[in-house]
Amino acid sequence: MDTGTAAARxxxxxxxxxxxxxxxxxxxxxxxxxxxxxKIVVCGPSGSGKSTMIRCINRLEEHHEGQIIVxxxxxxxxxxxxxxxxxxxxxVFQGINLFMHLNVMDNLTLAPIYVNKTPKHEAEEYARKLLxxxxxxxxxxxxxxxxxxxxxxxxxxVRALMSKPKVxxxxxxxxxxxxxxxxxxxxxxxxxxxxxITMIVVTHEMGFARKMADLVVFxxxxxxxxxxxxxxFFSNPKSDRAKQFLSQIINH
Amino acid sequence: xxxxxxxxxxxxxxxxxRPSPLRSGGxxxxxxxxxxNNAHNTVLSIIALIALSYAGWHALRWAILDAVWYTHxxxxxxxxxxxxxxxxxxxxxxxxxxxxxxxxxxxxxxxxALIMALSIVSGFRRFWSRNLMIAWAALLPTVLVLMLGxxxxxxxxxxxxxxxxxxxLIMAIVTVAFGLPGAILLALGRRSKLPAIKALCIGITEITxxxxxxxxxxxxxxMLPLFLPTTFRIDKFVSAQIAMIIxxxxxxxxxxxxxxxxxxxxxxxxxxAAGLKYGQRMRRVILPQGLRIVIPALxxxxxxxxxxTTFVSILGLYDILGATSAATxxxxxxxxxxxxxxxxxxxxxxxxxxxxxxxxxLARYLSQGRNY
Lengths: 252, 372
Description:
The structure holds two protein chains of two kinds. By secondary structure, chain A is α/β, with parallel strands linked by helices. Chain A has nine helices and ten strands. In chain A, a hairpin with a 2-residue loop joins strand 4 (65-70) and strand 5 (73-74). Chain A is globular. Chain B has 15 helices and one strand, in the order αααααααααααααβαα. The longest helix of chain B has 30 residues, at 337-366. The A-B interface holds A 58-60, 83, 86-87, 89-91, 93, 95-101, 103, 110-111, 114-115, 142-146, 159, 163 and B 264, 266-267, 269-277, 280, 284-285, 288-289, 292, 366, 368-372.
């Protein structure tokens, strides 16, 4: 792997990652490599460690054993490395978490201006371009509180895209939304996926997984129990736990 | 027992839109409804009205109709049955400027005028600009030059000559100007992951909060010099000022900390995930939201700091209240001291009420377009 070119190297590597909350073993020996341009969907019952796993990738959570490497940089205590990794990793949250005191445009340009030192007008121009693409060109001067949940989440996706990340993390991006708004967010995610952006998506939206995922990862009790391309995972799950999970999701 | 066979029943809603029955009628009908809606309330309202008019009439006669407004002769006041507002005109220079040399009192007057003008201008958001911040930054040295003298051919006037309104205003403004940043640092430090910084900030906050202001002032003014070499004499005003700053910072720190805790965790995480450094996260994301939440509580503390300046009298510094009590020692006028105090209380009220109204409008402005 050391001799590989940047293109051949996985964007995200997790090698033997373990994590504990006090005495609770939250992540158990996680091994995962995400190739450039691939879409990984992570699913599993709640409390299975899906969110914890992706939050370790940009160090919102600390892992205690093993290695996490993002585009050649290992996630450690080193603040400068963490900052570099966070520049390369965009994140979309279940709770959306737009900056409530800033309007849409300032939300989008904050990190480019202060982190990437992009000139303001350049950042704004890029923001307007991306906003137009997600159908929110008119909302640039509004505050998050004036937008619907679906609009907010689309803005949050644009915010994650602003620094041209090498990988996008989605932490249950539609779980907090009304059913009517889930569709518009999934639509944007689908378009991004089609453009070849590397994505790791924690979601319960099996339709999205079936359509867009290169690999579906199923987790339970802090372990990766099963991983397969969607057609195989959904038609022929191997583990009993995955079978049970799928039957519950489909029959609910 | 067998349940009765009552079935749920629903009817499709009517489509017509009707005017709201709330808030109907003008002020007169609302007074009628509120005060005279039944016999019991009508009797109570009439009794209260009579009592109020009686008290109001006497207050009016004392304060306005029978009052003496202007005279240099205290005997005229003694003959009158009303208030003697003439004491304000007679003693206002002492009340406002304390023992500042009489001929030089244009300087503290100018200092107050500058401070008030800038404060009023800052109350209008359309004047908010970089220039206004520069003006505030330039205010402190300007006021110091005016008050201290000794340069530009101004007669030197040390802090021991300061008194009255300038002392109160300068002390209050400097307390907030240095205390608020101090409070923010203490609050951030208290949430630090570094144990030493955290312990230091908790220590400063808790010890200061655990002492009465009088003790802090005494320690700063009287005990501190005992520990310093005798050649190093610390100015009484400066030590009182430092004590006021620390005291304010310790109290405000806990308010700021409350604001920081009220900012949802997701905001911290989103700021981290965006790659912002600690300082940027606090400056750009967390503090603007956290401080906005605690504006009313902070203003409460700022108003208290303004009024706490009266405590410096115990060190022999004459704030406006102390200057008033000194000004009313004149045996000719001493019996009219209450009128002089009422004047000063009115001044206090104007300042404090303006601050309160300002914080309200600021909080309203900052919560535009935000739904939490």
